[in-house]
Amino acid sequence: MAPRTILYTGKGGVGKTSVAAATARRCAAAGQRTIVLSTDPAHSLADALEQEIAGTPTDVGGGLFAQQVAAQAEMERHWSAVQAWAGELLRERGADRVSAEELTVPPGMDELFSLLQIKAHHESDDWDVVIVDCAPTGETLRLLSFPDVLRWWLAKVFPQQSRLMDAARPLARMVLDLRLPDDAVIEEVNRLVGNLIAMNEILRDHERVSIRLVTTPDRMVVDEARRTFTYLNLYGFLTDAVVVNRVFPAEVGGYFGPWRERQLETLEEVRAAFAPVPVLTAPYFAAEVVGGDRLDELAAAAFDGTDPSALLLERLTQELVVGERTATLRLELPFAQKGDITLRKIGAEVIVRVDDHKRTVVLPGALAGYRATSASFEDGALELRFDEP
Ligand SMILES: Nc1ncnc2c1ncn2[C@@H]1O[C@H](COP(=O)(O)OP(=O)(O)OP(=O)(O)O)[C@@H](O)[C@H]1O
Ligand SMILES: [Mg+2]
Predict the structure, then answer these.
(1) 3.40.50.300, 3.40.50.2300, 2.60.40.1120, 3.40.50.970: CATH of 1-313
(2) What's the CATH number of domain 318-387, 3.10.180.10, 1.20.1530.20, 2.60.40.790, 3.30.530.20?
(3) What three-state secondary structure class fits 212?
(4) 85 C-alpha to center of ligand 2: Å?
């Protein structure tokens, strides 16, 4: 059976690596064959676990394996022909060496290749649980909505479709002195497209794969988590938990008292905004979360009574179905009563108010001009219809 795969993402510095490592240790301690992998070149997983970690699965004790994927090496393995070709093309057109090299690598591309490791682990029989410590704020997951990546490449690099190019190659060489990509290049691109399609299928496997958002109880950080949540839903990726890390415990006393009050308010807002997605919390510890014991303390706090590898929610709570000239957004609002909901749409943002709770859903840019034409509320879910004007 494919392993249970959990991806942690969130804004920079909120505790993704700590929570990922803590979750992995707890799964391993429960006897599951677990690997935690990171694509972060800063090697923070090694720092959190206080272990040397290689680019391949490394035994870090306690039954746990860890891996720090070397983005550069993955890149060279999967993309060298394209890079060579595109680099040469750009240099011929006057780009200097350094910028040519940069231009041949779309932003986030190296990270994307690292993530193909998830696919490799998913297809192997080696693991029960795969934990992924992702780059900040789902940038990578955004990349995994492969049509965008593809569009980037097709627009920037491929002047025509590959079949057209086959016919045009000798002619273009003679007439235009244009270097069209050879078979190796086209094959690499095709392989990438195939891999991305497979990755998308894996990530949308709602029985085995989920994403967990890590945030701190601070408004701006929570706002970003909400935006991430929206597009994860739009891409059909299941978010099965939100982890609110660094909540001041009661012991902080007077000086941080008002701060703690505000955090607790924000925490309530988080519960309302993400419901029914379960919200887990971990306290702000007096010291850094480094080393096995500290990580286990963090895991014990976050997963108090909860199986860390369980699927904590089984369905998407926001669904957008886009038709020809119409779109339907389905939003679960478990706290809402029929009648006390107000709706506003400003550009691409839909603002739903239920009593004191406000929920903002950001629609894809293409729907910004659409008008909200009807709303119905049934079985705890709001259904909104948008039509092209
Ligand atoms: N609950 C906590 N209490 C105290 N310190 C914490 C807590 N969680 C994380 N830390 C510490 O905060 C720092 C940042 O945590 P971590 O590296 O896990 O964040 P991150 O989200 O992975 O950061 P980055 O975006 O840079 O990858 C680390 O020094 C970690 O030990
Ligand atoms: Mg990190």
Answers:
(1) 3.40.50.300
(2) 2.60.40.790
(3) strand
(4) 34
Residue nearest to atom 29 of ligand 1 (CA): 288
Ligand 1 site-directed mutation target among 9, 17, 224, 298, most atoms within 8 Å of CB? 17
CA of 321 to the centre of ligand 1 (A): 37
What CA–CA distance (Å, rounded) separates 268 from 97?
52
371-378: strand order across its sheet: 318-322, 326-332, 381-387, 371-378
Instruction: Count the residues in the chain.
Output: 389
Q: Is 114 in the pocket of ligand 1 (CB under 6 A)?
A: no
Q: Which one is predicted more confidently, 256 or 64? A: 64
The amino acid at residue 99 is S
Ligand 2 centroid vs 279 CA: distance in angstroms?
20
Q: Is the CB of 282 under 6 A from ligand 1?
A: yes
From ligand 1's centre to the CA of 13, what distance in Å?
A: 5
CA distance 131 to 126: 13
Q: Ligand 1 within 6 A of 15 CB? A: yes
pLDDT score for 318 = 81
Beta bridge partners of 387: 326, 371
Over residues 97-132, the pLDDT tens digits come to 666 666 666 666 777 777 788 889 999 999 999 999
Q: Is the peptide bond before 181 cis (omega within 30 degrees of 0)?
A: no
Report whether pLDDT(349) > 90. Answer: no
Give me 240's structure tokens.
Answer: 């099965």
- Copy the structure tokens of residue 261: 């009050």
Write the Ramachandran bin of 61: left for phi over 0, alpha for psi from -120 to 50, otherwise beta. Answer: left
Atom of ligand 1 nearest to the CA of 214: 21
Provide the pLDDT for residue 57. Answer: 96
